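FORM 12-B: Structure-to-Sequence Request
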């Protein structure tokens, strides 16, 4: 069931810039954004879990070591 939503002019401009084709709808663009966001969130959750396992095994480096490696 279609519905109407209100968006700011700046959000509309952003959505317009994301269109790959002239006839692409805002709904199409929003579906892609939502899909990408869900994938990123699941990937991030997985990476956090993996990092926690590494930390619990003592596989970590200090901030000082990171700075040294990056030349900061």
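FORM 12-B RESPONSE
SEQUENCE OUT:
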């Amino acid at each position: 069931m279609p519905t109407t939503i209100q968006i700011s002019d700046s959000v509309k401009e952003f959505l317009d810039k994301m269109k790959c084709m002239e006839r692409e709808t805002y709904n199409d663009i929003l579906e892609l954004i939502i899909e990408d966001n869900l994938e990123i969130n699941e990937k991030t959750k997985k990476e956090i879990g993996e990092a926690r396992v590494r930390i619990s095994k003592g596989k970590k480096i200090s901030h000082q070591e990171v700075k040294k490696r990056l030349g900061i």
